[in-house]
Design brief:
homotrimer, mainly alpha, A middle domain of Talin 1, two-stranded antiparallel ribbon, 2 strands, NaCa_Exmemb (chains A, B, C), ion transport (chains A, B, C), calcium transport (chains A, B, C), Ca(2+)/H(+) antiporter (chains A, B, C)
C-alpha cells in the first residue's frame, strides 16, 4: 500500500504535466501559459517596468483562468452531484476572487469595487450580447427555456438590488462619516452569504432540475482524473495569486502611463480577463444552439458575483487591508449595474434571440466602456 | 312591524358581541383585542409611559385590523357585487388610512410619508416574498395566472411611478421654496383619485372577470349578518382611530427611547401592523396553493395605497394638520419603492413560484429594514 | 421620348395639386394646410406677433406632417421593399428632425433636448396609452403578438439606455468643464448610427418577417404615383423647414408670454405636433383591432428617435449652431425617459390590452405634462 501510494504521488505530477500538455495542444489559448514564468521572472528583474508587467500579467491570467475553470469542472464531475455542484458554484468566479483579494490587500478599494461592478455588467451585457450575436450569426432565431431564464434573471435582479442598497442610500451618509455605510455593508454581507447558501440548497438539492443543463457544460470534454484535477486546482490557484499580486502592483503606474482610469481597468479589463474562460464556454454553447446554457452561465455567474464574491470581499476586508471596505459604489457604476441587470432580464424574458439583440447589448456595453475610458480620473472615488 | 324592528335593534348589539366572541375563539390572534381597553386606560393613567404605550398600541391595532377586514368583507358579501367590491376596494387599507390620518393631524409628515412608502414596499416584497416562501415550503413549484398577474403588476408599476413624479423632479425645487412641489402634489392627487375611480369601473364592472378570484378571499368563512357587519365596522373604526391617536402621540418619544428612526417606524412597523390582516389571508392562500389570490392581494393592496390612500392624505392635509403635505419622498424611499415594484413585476411575470424566490424577496426587504434601522436620524427629512 | 418626358414634367405639378386636393377632401385634418401660407405671410407682416405666430405655426405643421408621412409611404410603396423600408425608417420622424434642426441652428439646445426626450416619452406613453384606450373602448380585450412586441420593446429599452449614458454619468463632469461630456456624446452618436444601420439590415433584410405587419400601415389607402410622391416629399419638406424656422423664432417669446417653459414646449408641444401623423395611424389601427401595428409604430418610432434623430443632431451640431451639443439631459427628463420606456416594455410584455391600461399610461403622461407645466423656468438647463 505504502509503496503504491508513494508511486502514485510521484507519478501524479508527471501525469498532471502530461495532461496539461495535451490540453495545451487542444486549446491554443492555453499557449499563453508561457507568459506565467515570463511575468514572474520579469517582476524580479525589472520591477519598475509597470506597463510591460501589466500586459504580460493579463496575458498570463487568461490561460490560468481557463485551466482553473477546467480543473474545477473535472473535480466537480468526479465528486458527484452535490459536492461537485457546490465546487462549481463556489469556484466559478475564483479568478475574479483572487485578483480582487490581491487588490484588497493592496488597499486599492476602487479597483475592487470596479471589478465587482464590472463583472456583473460584463456577464449581463457582454456575455449575453456576445452569445446572442455569435449564436444569431449561425441560427436565424434561437429559442431558450424562458421559464428558467426568467427565474434566474429575477434572482439576479434581486441580488444586484441587494448589493446596491448601501449605494442607493449613500447620499445620506453625510453625518457620521461612513460609519453607517460600514455597518450596513457588513450586515448586508452576512445576509447575502446566508442567501447564497440557501441558493445552493435550492439549485443543488430541492430544485436542481431547473438548473440541470448548466451542469453539462463541458459535454464532449472528458474530465481529468480526480487527483490531477485537485493538483492542477491548487497549483493554478497559487499561480493566479502570484500573477494577480504582480498585476495589482503594476496596475496603478501602468494605468497612469496608458492614460487609463482605475475604473476602466477594474470594470472592463479585469472583468474580461477574469471571465474569459466562462465566456469561451458561453459563446461556444451559443454557436452549438444551446442558448439555455449560455444564458444560465451569464446569469448565474453575475448573480454569484453579487451574492458571494462581493460579500466575501467585504468580510475579508476586516482582516486584511488597511481598513474595512464598504459596498458603496459611485453613482455611475450603480446606474450601469442596474441597467445591465434590467437589460439581461428583458433579453431573458422573451425566450427568443436574434443577432441584433446581441448587437444592441454589445453596443450598450461599448458605450459603458467608452464612458469609463473618457472619464476624467479622480471622479470615481 | 314596529315592534319587530325595535326588537331587532335591541338584539343586534348582543348578537354582535356574541359573534365577536365566537370569532375570538376561532382566531387566536384576536385575543390581542384585550389590549384595546388596556391601552386606552394606560394612556389616561400614565400618559408619559411612551414606550409602553407604543408597544401596547401596536398589540391593540393588530386584532382591530383583523376585525375591520373581516367586517368589511362581511358587509361586502351581503351588499352584492358592485357595492361590495367598492367597499372592499375602498376599505381594504382602512387601518393604514386611519393611522396615517392621525399622524397627519399631529403634523408628523415624515411618519405619514414613511408609512405610504413602507406600505407599498411591504406589500410588494414582504407579502409577495412571504407568500412565495410559505407556499413554496409546501408545494414544489406553484403556478399562477400570469396574464392577470402581469396586468396588475403593470398597473402597480404605473401607479407607483405616478406618485413618484414629484420626488423624481424634486432636486429641481430650489428656486420657489416648495411651492412647485405643493401644486404638483395637489394636481397629482386629484388625477390619481380620478384614475382610481376609473379603476373601480374597470375591476368591478367592465373587466371584473380578471379580478374574480380575489373576491372569493375568505372562502370557508361565513360572512356575518349585514347589521352586525356594519356595527362592527363602525365601532372598530372608532377604536382604531382612538388607538392610532395614542400610538401617534407616543411614537416620537418611544422611537427616540428605543433608538428607532421615525422612518423605520413608519416604513416597517406601521406597514407590518396595518397590513397584518391582509398578510394572514395572503399567506394562508399561498399555503392552500391559491397563489393567484396571494398575488392579487399583494399587488392590489400596494396599488391602492398609491392610487387612493396617498392622494387622500394629500387632499386632507389641506384641511387638517399645520400645513399642506407634498408627495415628495426622500431619495432612499424613492429607490426602495421603485425597486420593490420592479421586483414584484418580475416575480409576477414568470407565472411560477418556488421557495427561493420568496427568500430573495424577503432578503431584499430585510436589507431595506436594516438600512432604515441603521440610518442616522435626521437624514430622511 | 423627349416630348413625352417634357409633357410628364409639366403635368406632374398639376396632378400633384389634384392629388393633394383629393387628399384634403378625404382627411379633414389636412384643411389646416390653409395655415401654411398664413404663417409665412404673417411672419413677413408682423414678425413681432410671437404668440400668434407660435399657434399658427403649430396649426400649419400638423397637416404638413400628415402629408409628409403620406408621401413617404407612397414613395416607399413604389420603390420596393428594401429602399421603401429604408425610406420609411429614415423619414418616419422627418418632421421632428426638421423642427429640431431649426432649433439647433438657432442655438436652442434646451428645446432640442426636450424634443428628443419628449418624442421618446410621447411615443412610449401617449401613443401606447391612446392606442390601448381607443382600442379598448371598442374591444373588450385585445391581443397582440407578444414575441415581436417584447423584442421591439427590449430594443427600445437598450436604445434609450444608450442615449442616457452621458446623463447617467453627468454628475461626474465637474472637473474638465463639459469636455468629457462632449467627447462621449460624439463617440456615442457615431456608435448609435452604426447600430441603427445594423438595425436596418436586421429589420429590412435578415429578419423582416418580425416587422412585417408594420409595412402594411396604410392598408386601404392607395399610394400616390411615384413622381407625385417625390414632388410632395420635397415640397412639403421645404415647407416644414420654413414653418419650423418661424416656429423656433417665435417660441421663446411666445412661451414667455404664455407662461410656458421651453421644456414644456419641447417635451409636450413639439412631440405631439411632430408625431400627430403617426398617432393618427396608430390610433385608427387600434380601433380596427390591429394592435400589433399600433405597438410597432409606437415602439419603432421611439427607438428611431433614440438611435437616429438624436445622434444625427449631435453630429450636425458640429457643423451648424454656435457650439457642439452634448447628449446630456436634465435629471427629470432622464427619469421620465427611463420610466416611459419601462412602462412601454411592461405593457408590451403581457400581450394583452384593455382600456384601463391605456388610462394608466395616459395618466402618467398627464402627470409628466403637469410637472413640466408647473416647473419653474431655469430649472431644466
Amino acid at each position: 500500500m505504502r509503496t503504491l501510494e508513494a508511486k502514485r504521488s510521484t507519478t501524479q505530477p508527471r501525469s498532471a504535466i502530461e495532461t496539461v500538455v495535451r490540453e495545451l495542444r487542444r486549446s491554443p489559448l492555453l499557449a499563453l501559459i508561457f507568459f506565467v514564468p515570463v511575468v514572474i521572472l520579469l517582476e524580479r528583474m525589472a520591477p519598475e517596468a509597470h506597463t510591460l508587467l501589466f500586459f504580460v500579467a493579463i496575458a498570463a491570467i487568461v490561460p490560468l483562468a481557463a485551466l482553473l475553470s477546467r480543473a474545477t469542472e473535472s473535480v466537480a464531475a468526479k465528486t458527484g452531484d452535490a459536492v461537485g455542484g457546490l465546487l462549481n458554484a463556489t469556484l466559478g468566479n475564483l479568478t475574479e476572487l483572487i485578483i480582487t483579494l490581491a487588490a484588497l490587500q493592496a488597499g486599492q478599494y476602487l479597483l475592487v469595487k470596479a471589478s465587482i461592478a464590472g463583472a456583473i455588467v460584463t456577464n449581463s451585457l457582454f456575455m449575453f450580447g456576445g452569445a446572442f450575436l455569435i449564436g444569431g450569426l449561425k441560427h436565424h432565431l434561437q429559442e431558450f427555456n424562458r421559464v428558467n431564464a426568467r427565474f434566474q434573471a429575477s434572482l439576479l435582479f434581486l441580488a444586484t438590488i441587494a448589493i446596491l442598497v448601501p449605494s442607493l442610500t449613500s447620499g445620506l451618509d453625510r453625518t457620521p462619516a461612513g460609519e453607517f455605510s460600514q455597518q450596513l455593508s457588513l450586515g448586508l454581507a452576512i445576509l447575502l452569504i446566508a442567501v447564497y447558501g440557501l441558493g445552493m440548497v435550492f439549485s443543488l438539492k430541492t430544485h436542481k432540475e431547473l438548473f440541470a443543463s448548466v451542469g453539462q457544460a463541458e459535454a464532449g470534454e472528458e474530465p481529468w482524473p480526480l487527483s490531477i484535477g485537485i493538483v492542477v486546482l491548487i497549483v493554478v490557484t497559487l499561480l493566479v495569486a502570484i500573477v494577480s499580486e504582480i498585476f495589482v502592483g503594476s496596475v496603478q503606474a501602468a494605468a497612469q502611463h496608458l492614460g487609463l482610469t482605475p475604473a476602466f481597468v477594474g470594470f472592463i479589463v479585469i472583468a474580461l480577463v477574469g471571465g474569459a474562460a466562462e465566456m469561451t464556454t458561453a459563446f461556444s454553447a451559443a454557436r452549438a444552439n444551446r442558448l439555455d446554457l449560455s444564458v444560465g452561465i451569464a446569469l448565474g455567474s453575475a448573480a454569484q458575483i453579487a451574492l458571494f464574491v462581493a460579500p466575501v470581499l467585504v468580510i475579508v476586508s476586516y482582516f486584511i487591508g488597511p481598513q474595512p471596505m464598504s459596498l458603496e459604489f459611485w453613482p455611475g457604476a450603480v446606474a450601469m449595474m442596474l441597467v445591465a441587470t434590467m437589460a439581461a432580464t428583458l433579453l431573458s424574458n422573451g425566450g427568443h434571440a436574434a443577432w441584433y439583440a446581441g448587437v444592441m447589448a454589445l453596443a450598450v456595453y461599448a458605450i459603458f466602456a467608452l464612458t469609463l475610458f473618457l472619464l476624467p480620473p479622480g471622479v470615481t472615488q
